[in-house]
Amino acid sequence: MKLKKLEISGFKSFYEKSAIKFIAGIAAIVGPNGCGKSNVIDALRWVMGEQSVKKLRGKAMEDIIFAGTNGKPPLNMAEVSLVLDNDDGAAPEPFQDYAEIMVTRRLYRSGESAYLINKQPCRLKDITNIFTDSGLGAKSYAVIQQGNVGAITEAGPEERRFFIEEAAGVTRYKGRKTETLRKIKATNENLMRVTDLITEIKRQMSGLRRQARKAERFHKLQVKIRRIDIVLGLHYYDGYAERIQATDQILTGLKDADTGNLAEHKTL
Predict the structure, then answer these.
(1) Is pLDDT of 247 > 70?
(2) What is the pTM of this model?
(3) What CATH number does residue 129 fall under?
(4) What is the b/e burial string over 14-23, where b = at least 16 CB atoms within 10 angstroms of the residue's CB?
(5) What's the whole-number mean pLDDT along residues 61-68?
(6) 25 is in which domain, residue-wise?
(7) Residue 137 pLDDT more than 80?
(8) 8 in a domain, yes or no?
(9) What are phi and psi for residue 112, nearest 5 degrees?
């Protein structure tokens, strides 16, 4: 992939929309101090996914939005689009069939941001994946800030190793490996939590089993008590029924005797 065009609007000193074309061969941007040459590099870094405000020479991300000058009011949005030439088909698999790839990044003064690939919303990760192993990217050796050439030539072994791996095209696979290891670690942590949950659930189940056994015994005792109550009730019922019957017979005899006494008394 090669840089084809950079479109800047509302980014730092670019009040009006500007387009910079990178023709075949060597392309250079020249101009006096303060004309915005470094802002072009900042815009290039930013659209490729740079998240460090310090590397963009600002204190807050809102500083990249045009702040206004005499006669020109401040803007509420900064947008940078980078057009890549993909004639060699070196883009990642989802974009290999595109002759051109447009990467766009927007930032609003409210803090909202948007990432687009070919004018379709995407994630920051999708943009960084495009530039991985391409020699481009916000952290690659292809973009060197002013005054940092010496820092790169004097880089330590670890930093020098990063540049070599980027040039060799293994950064993408290392990134995938890192992401996979991170997912494995997260999965192991989830498994540990699941194990803790299982242990806790087993402990609760033991208590529930004890409660269930007590409830079962209580239910059996309740059934037994109910049966005993029924037997006792039937027993008392039979006894009271016999006593009532005997009492009724005594009352009947007394009534008969009383009637006989009354008849005998009248005859006298």
Answers:
(1) yes
(2) 0.59
(3) 3.40.50.300
(4) bbeeeeeebe
(5) 90
(6) 2-144
(7) no
(8) yes
(9) -75, 145
- Which of 71-74's residues contact partners 24+ apart within 8 Å by CB, and which partners? 72/15, 74/109
Q: Is residue 50 part of a domain?
A: yes
Round to whole Å and give the CA distance between 106 and 88.
28
Among all chains, which residue has been given the structure tokens 């790839």? 101
Measured CA to CA, the distance from residue 229 to residue 246 in angstroms comes to 26
SS3 (DSSP) at 65: strand
Give the angle 28-95-113 at the CA atoms, nearest 5°: 70
Highest mean pLDDT among 143-147, 220-224, 257-261: 220-224
Strands 100-108 and 18-21: unpaired
Tracing tokens 């000193």 back to the chain, one arrives at 13
Looking at the structure of the chain, the number of domains it has is: 1
C-alpha 104/C-alpha 92 separation (Å) is 17
As a whole number of Å, the CA-based R_g of the chain is 46
Containing 227, the helix (H) or strand (E) segment is helix 171-267
Residue with tokens 């479109």, as numbered in its chain: 7
Q: Is residue 86 a part of any domain in this protein?
A: yes
Q: Give the pair of three-digit tokens for residue 156.
A: 């330590």
Cα–Cα distance, 20 to 105 (Å, whole number): 16
What are the tokens at 84?
């890549």
Q: Which residue has the tokens 């109910």?
A: 226
Residue 230 domain-assigned (yes or no): no
